[in-house]
Amino acid sequence: TGYITYDPGFINTGSCMSSICYIDGEKGILRYRGYDIADLVQNCDFIEVAYLLVKGVLPTLDERSNYARLLNKHSMLHTDMRNFFRSYPHDAHPMAILASMVASLSAFYPEMEEKDPEDNIDLTVTRLLSKMRTIAAFSYRQSIGYDFVDPRYDYSYCENFLNMMFSSPVLDYHPDPVHVKALNQLLILHADHEQNCSTSAVRLVGSSEANLYASVAAGCCALWGPKHGGANQAVIEMLNKIIKEGLSVKEIVEKAKDKSNTFRLSGFGHRVYKTFDPRARIAKQMCQEVLNVEGMHDSLMEVALELEDIAIHDDYFIERNLYPNIDFYTGIIFHLMRIPQQMFTVLFAMGRLPGWIAHYLEWRHDPYQKIGRPRQIYAGPETRKVIPLSLRT
Ligand code: CMC
C-alpha cells in the first residue's frame, strides 16, 4: 500500500476487466462483443448495435422490432422538461444543453433512486437511449430559436432524429435515405471504444453508485473537449480556415510540428492506435460514397485528402505513429448531411451512448468492482505554520 505507481493519463493502467470492446492498436482492429466494426457497419443498423452492446447479443428480428417500438414509445419528453429548454440562451452550445438535460432526466424520471433500482434499470436504459435523441434534436432547435418537432411513431430511430432536427412548417422535409443510412453507420462507428476519457468518466461516476443519468451526463462533459469528441468540430473549423484564408496545407502541417506553439492537427493521433484508426478508414470510404450519391464535389474533402497525404508521409507523423482518427472524416460526412458544426459532438454522444450504458451496467454486475479512487504523488510544500493574517506580507 505504501507504493504508488505514477501513470499520468493512465497510459499503463487497466482499470477494469471488460468483455464489451476489443482494440488492437498495432493492427488497427476494433470489435464490439467479438464482431468486427466493418462487419457491424455493413450488416446492422444502430438499434441492433445498441442492443448488442447493452444486452450482449445481436437481436432476432422480433427482438429488434420490439426494441425499436419501445424506443419510439419512450421518445417524448416531459412537458416541464420541454419548457426548461426555453431558459437557455439562444446561442448556448448544444453540448451544454445536452449534458445538463441528461442529468435532469434523473429529476423527471427518478426510478433509479427508488429502493430497488435493479427492477427499473431496463426502463431507465430504454428511456435514456430514446430520450437522449430527442434532447439532442431539441438542443439544436433551441440554439437556432425554432419550435420543437415531436418524434413520430412511424419513423425509425435515425429518421426521427433527422426529422426533429430539420422539419419545418415551410419546408416539405422527409429524411433522405442516404443520410439515414450514413447516420446509422456513423452512430455505429462511435458506439464504443473501451476505456476512453468519457467512458472512464461514466464508470468513475457510476462507481460511486450515482444513477445512470448522472453518470452519462459526466460522460457528455468529458466528451465535449477538443482532445476527445470535440475534435470533429475542430477538424471542420481547421479545414474551413485553410480554405477561407487561402492557407497552404504544407504550412499547417509545419505549424502542427512546431513545438513553439500548441497547435495540433485535429483528427490526427490516438492514444491506442499506432496505425490507421479502422473507423477512419470506414468513414473515409463513407465520405466518398455520400459525395458520389449526391453527385457533389466538396472542397473540404479535397483539402482533407491533401492534408492526410502530406501528414502520413511526413517523418514527424511517421515517427510518432500519428494517423487520421475517427474525427478526421466524420466531420466532413456530417457537413455533407448539412448537420451544423455545433452538433457534431452531440452526434458523437448519441453514438457513444450504448457504449457508456454497457460499461455502466458491466460495472454494476462486476463483483470485483470498487469505487474508483486513484492515488497521487504529492509534490507540494512540506509542513508549514500559518502566519496570522495581520502579519502576512
Ligand atoms: N498533431 C501534431 N502533433 C501531435 C498530434 C497532432 N494531432 N497528436 C499527437 N502529437 C504529438 C505530440 O505533440 C507528442 O509529440 P512529442 O513526443 O514530440 O512531445 C506525440 O505526438 C505524442 O502525443 P501525446 O499527446 O503524448 O499523445 P496522447 O496519446 O496523450 O494523445 C490525442 C492522443 C488524441 C489526445 C492526441 O493525438 C491529440 O491531441 N490529437 C488531436 C485531437 C484529436 O484528434 N482528438 C480525437 C481523438 S480520436 C476520438 C476520441 O477518442 O475522442
Automatic annotation (TrEMBL):
A GO cellular-component term linked to this record: cytoplasm
Gene Ontology BP, a term: tricarboxylic acid cycle
Pathway as given in its UniProt record: Carbohydrate metabolism; tricarboxylic acid cycle; isocitrate from oxaloacetate: step 1/2
Keywords from the UniProt entry: Acyltransferase, Transferase, Tricarboxylic acid cycle
Molecular function GO labels: citrate synthase activity
Catalytic activity, as annotated: oxaloacetate + acetyl-CoA + H2O = citrate + CoA + H(+)
Leader peptide range in chain numbering: none
Keyword set includes NADP: no
SUPFAM superfamilies to which the protein is assigned, alphabetical: Citrate synthase
Pfam families named in the record: Citrate_synt
CDD domains: EcCS_like
Residues forming the catalytic site: H270, D327
Family to which the UniProt record says this protein belongs: Belongs to the citrate synthase family.
Protein name listed in UniProt: Citrate synthase
Species name: Bullifex porci
Top-level taxonomy: Bacteria, Pseudomonadati, Spirochaetota, Spirochaetia, Spirochaetales
